[in-house]
């Protein structure tokens, strides 16, 4: 597939699409074939740019390019993501600054200093201009479930908790009165560092959302323990409130449900050499264990 993409997006076509690059020295190389996008490094007269093209399954995964571009631009303008340089909507082609960086290790986000940095960036994000559209993980959950039903049935692990998932969706729907711009996919791979500055990348699933979803997604992706969850919430809200802590944990479960179903769907359609099925199972087992725990009932009561 990468060869076909390189053929489709050859130098001639790239320079035709981006008039500012006409007549300049342009070199393009494949960086990686991401999970949802195909990414390139483009050198134009010695200056590097990052070029991203949606994968063939982006529509199936409910990814909106206009939303991605709009939100990335907002965050680039306020300095928490690479700035958008060019956007060709007809081709769904996005060019941003190329920031030389290394993806940090998961454990590096476990200390207080790094949690403080994360909260600072998240609060800047949540205080930005409204994003292009709203994001509700339960909309994605239903979307993925419907596709999986048509494609051979839902995963067995889902059967025993389907009623609990519906109830959780109803409970969390009550907290959608105050939505803020959210990234919604705080995996380590979507955070990059350059000269001690933290940047967010990959706005495929960004949208206005309950801020507790952002924190809930973060705690499961970073594998935070109870003390780290408390510290995260205190740094964000200024105090620890049991109703907020409970909502963060519940939104973390909602995040795992959604990304698990996303994984089951990827296992059916993706050509990547990655065990999406095991990825999905691990997350759904984590959901089941949490929903079967005593804490889960307390969290539901507390919110």
Which structural traits does this protein have?
alpha+beta, Phosphorylase Kinase, domain 1, Aminoglycoside 3'-phosphotransferase, Chain: A, domain 2, 2 domains, two-stranded antiparallel ribbon, 11 helices, 48% helix, 16% strand, globular, disordered N terminus
Q: How confident is the prediction overall: mean pLDDT?
A: 92
The CATH architecture of the largest domain comes to: Alpha-Beta Complex
Q: What structural category do the secondary elements indicate?
A: alpha+beta
Strand content: 15-25%
SSE sequence, one letter per element: HHEEEHEEHHHEEEEHHHHH
Inertia-based shape: globular
Q: State the CATH superfamily name of the largest domain.
A: Aminoglycoside phosphotransferase (APH), C-terminal lobe
Give a quick account of the main beta sheet: strands, pairing sense, barrel closure: 5 strands, antiparallel
Fill in the CATH topology of the largest domain: Aminoglycoside 3'-phosphotransferase, Chain: A, domain 2
Span from first to last CA? 47 Å
Strand order of the largest sheet: 1-2-3-5-4
The total beta strand count reads 9
How many separate structural domains? 2
Helix content: 40-55%
Tally of DSSP helical segments:
11
Radius of gyration: 20 Å
Low-confidence stretches: 1-7
Look at the structure and give the CATH class of the largest domain.
Answer: Alpha Beta
């Amino acid at each position: 597939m990468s060869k076909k993409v390189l053929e489709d997006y050859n130098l001639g076509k790239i320079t035709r699409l981006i008039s500012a690059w006409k007549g300049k020295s342009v070199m393009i190389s494949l960086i990686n074939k991401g999970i949802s996008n195909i990414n390139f490094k483009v050198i134009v007269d010695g200056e590097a740019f990052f070029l991203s093209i949606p994968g063939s399954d982006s529509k199936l995964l409910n990814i909106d390019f206009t939303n991605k571009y709009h939100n990335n631009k907002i965050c680039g303008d306020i300095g928490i993501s690479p700035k958008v340089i060019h956007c060709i909507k007809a081709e769904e082609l996005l060019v941003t600054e190329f920031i030389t960086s290394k993806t940090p290790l998961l454990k590096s986000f476990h200390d207080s200093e790094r949690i403080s940095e994360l909260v600072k960036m998240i609060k800047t994000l949540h205080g930005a201009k409204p994003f292009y559209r709203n994001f509700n993980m339960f909309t994605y959950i239903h979307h993925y479930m419907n596709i999986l039903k048509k494609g051979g049935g839902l995963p067995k692990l889902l059967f025993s908790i389907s009623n609990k998932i519906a109830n959780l969706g109803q409970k969390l729907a009550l907290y959608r009165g105050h939505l803020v711009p959210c990234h919604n996919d705080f995996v380590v791979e979507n955070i990059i560092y350059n000269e001690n500055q933290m940047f967010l990348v990959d706005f495929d699933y960004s949208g206005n959302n309950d801020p507790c979803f952002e924190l809930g997604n973060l705690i499961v992706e970073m594998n935070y323990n109870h003390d780290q969850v408390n510290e995260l919430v205190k740094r964000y809200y200024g105090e620890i409130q049991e109703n907020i802590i409970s909502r963060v944990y519940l939104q973390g479960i909602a995040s795992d449900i959604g990304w698990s179903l996303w994984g089951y769907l990827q296992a059916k359609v993706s050509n990547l050499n990655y065990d999406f099925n095991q990825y999905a199972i691990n997350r759904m087992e984590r959901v089941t264990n949490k929903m079967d725990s005593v804490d889960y009932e307390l969290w539901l009561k507390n919110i």
